[in-house]
Amino acid sequence: MSTAPDDRLAKPSAYAPGALTNDDVALTPQRSEGRASVPFDLPGVSVGTAEYAEGPTGCTVLHFPEGARTAIDARGGAVGLSGGYRWHEAIVLAGGSVYGLEAAAGVATELLHSKENRTHWAALQHVSGAVIYDFSTRDTAIAPDAALGRAALRNAKAGEFPVGRCGAGLAASVGKIDFGRAEFAGQGAAFREFGGMKVLVATVVNAVGVVVDRDGTVVRGNLHADSSRRRPPVEDYAAAATGGEPVGTLAGNTTLTVLVTNVRLPEVSLNQLGTQVHSSMHRAIQPFHTEIDGDILFTVTTDEVDLEGVSATGLGALASEVAWDAVLSAVE
User: Fold this and answer.
1) d(Cα 111, Cα 115) in Å, to the nearest integer?
2) Catalytic one among 49, 137, 249, 254?
3) Are 285 and 255 in contact (CB under 8 A)?
4) 271-295 in b/e burial notation, b at 16+ Cβ within 10 A?
5) 156-160, 178-182, 268-272: which has the minimum mean pLDDT?
6) Looking at the whole model, is its pTM more than 0.90?
7) For this structure, is 249 an active site residue?
8) Which residues, 6 or more positions from 289, have their beta carbon under 8 angstroms from its beta carbon?
9) 117 DSSP 8-state letter
10) What distance in Å separates the CA atoms of residue 20 and residue 38, rounded to the nearest whole number?
11) Residue 127 and residue 83 in contact, taking contact as beta carbons nearer than 8 Å
12) Would you say 252 and 85 are in contact if contact means Cβ atoms under 8 Å apart?
């Protein structure tokens, strides 16, 4: 493929000591709209984003005011997760690696206040946070914090998922087989209806691997300047293994995904749906679930309708195609 526009090429961080932190700058949360939004029709689900342009970094909140059952599939060697509940009022995706987990605490506090500070067991608000390592594309140590999480929740609205370089995907990158070949990615989403069954998949793509479309073409990442071509990483690995130039991949990668459906599923099926769809994403991201990735997929159901005409496996096959569309939308 031809060379990408310069604004897609990820500039490596200097990792300099004394980088700016949240304590050094007067930070004001801003809305993080992205290049577009994907419409979806799932009652009881709203989405909000916020960012610190000074980072740049951001967060994305999926809010389920009535709560929703959840299964979690975590893979790879570098998972960053807080909470990990089986029932959620909110899921928070954020940049800032381990420091960005503070954003989820902010969302929990905001939800506490929205419930008149009631702390009865039945009133507790369950919030999980998951983070990407986005420091490799920027020179600051600024991270999503409680204030940014609270702002993202306040920005939440139903029926729209912002996509592109926004929210948790603001400084995401892919194709880090060698960082000089890495390109910016972002967050993506796709929504489909199959009869009365609905599936929304949202993903923040920050993988060591590249993004691949359905005809096998690498569409983002691992761009070789000498040939102006994006190459499948396996070509680089094969060359290195047979006496070519050694390949050193960059640590600090994570793809975060949330699958939301209205289909009522037993606990075992809900878990397996997440496993099936997460496995399918290997087609869109190559390689995936490596020892230097920390991939997480949350599977959420609002428990509104029963399966129609297909088994849970069939729903997984359909949702897997929606997931591929979501990955591609992150890098359009």
Assistant:
1) 6
2) 254
3) yes
4) bbbbebbbbbbebbbbbbbbebbbb
5) 178-182
6) yes
7) no
8) 75, 76, 282, 295
9) T
10) 34
11) yes
12) no
